[in-house]
Backbone:
């Protein structure tokens, strides 16, 4: 067995353990998307006859990253491994405009899943993907849900870690073996200190994340994407939904942010959501960048209400 196959098996085992923690049975499939027909993995959870909801995560956002949330939602959850992340093949983000490439990928993913339309949920940079889909594929995106802050407006400056990832030092950072202690420190910086102390992040979460970093080339591919979307003057325009672009997102949009999220602020996200034609903001007191890990019940309740709207 090759080293690559060993890594894939180790990662799959860590995923299964985290899914089991939440009593979830997950199924996977692969679809082809983009100009090079890139192989994209989609993990499916829930009743196949329930309303379809596509989930797109941020850095580290694959499969059971969503477990506490999807286990509390009565939907057909379709969790996309972004290209190069988890078990999806990479794409070359330098080949063209980021927005057009992302919209094309998601258009193809919906085709591959045989869906005319779906709700789209994003987190962190996955929020950009959700908004790009709503902007460029309006007939296919019924609702949008944005969880946590992201590089969505010109008021958001690149976080120090993202700038380091883009720099030459980033080539070394992505090769440093992840350890549970390192991950705990990162989560505390993202506003999840109290949830770690309360045990809301189980041991299986840390084992899964370590396997993602050590057994897949995800972070090396993520660095390549960061280098394509972050220039010397900040994030490329395709990531920014200011002014007329925000006004052009017609799908009903829900944004859920934690008051402890270091990406942006409640004031920034209030202004941002006010610029959307049909936007709603929910603020979870004390929650961090991944609010569904701090309070999955509250996030699920807000989403159920939002997705039930016409």
Residues:
């Amino acid at each position: 067995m090759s080293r690559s196959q060993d890594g894939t098996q180790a990662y799959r085992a860590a995923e299964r353990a985290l899914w089991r923690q939440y009593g979830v049975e997950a199924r996977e499939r692969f679809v082809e998307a983009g100009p090079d027909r890139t192989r994209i993995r989609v993990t499916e959870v829930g009743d196949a006859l329930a309303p379809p909801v596509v989930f797109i995560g941020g850095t580290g956002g694959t499969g059971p990253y969503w477990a506490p949330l999807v286990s509390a939602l009565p939907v057909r959850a379709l969790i996309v491994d972004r290209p190069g992340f988890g078990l999806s093949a990479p794409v070359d983000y330098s080949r063209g405009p980021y927005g057009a490439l992302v919209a094309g990928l998601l258009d193809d993913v919906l085709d591959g899943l045989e869906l005319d339309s779906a709700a789209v949920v994003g987190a962190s940079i996955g929020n950009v993907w959700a908004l790009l889909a709503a902007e460029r594929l309006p007939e296919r995106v019924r609702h949008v849900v944005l969880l946590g802050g992201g590089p969505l407006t010109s008021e958001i400056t690149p976080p120090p870690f993202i700038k380091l990832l883009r720099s030459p030092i980033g080539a070394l950072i992505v090769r440093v073996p992840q350890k549970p202690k390192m991950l705990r420190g990162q989560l505390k910086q993202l506003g999840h200190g109290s949830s770690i102390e309360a045990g809301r992040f189980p041991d299986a979460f840390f084992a899964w994340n370590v396997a993602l970093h050590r057994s897949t080339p995800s972070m090396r591919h993520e660095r390549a994407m960061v280098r394509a979307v972050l220039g010397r003057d900040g994030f490329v325009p395709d990531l920014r939904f200011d002014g007329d672009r925000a006004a052009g997102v017609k799908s009903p949009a829900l944004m859920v942010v934690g008051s402890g999220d270091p990406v942006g602020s409640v004031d920034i996200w209030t202004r941002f959501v006010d610029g959307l034609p049909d936007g709603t903001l929910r603020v979870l007191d004390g929650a961090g960048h991944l609010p569904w890990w701090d309070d999955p019940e509250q996030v699920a309740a807000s989403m159920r209400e939002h997705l039930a709207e016409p």
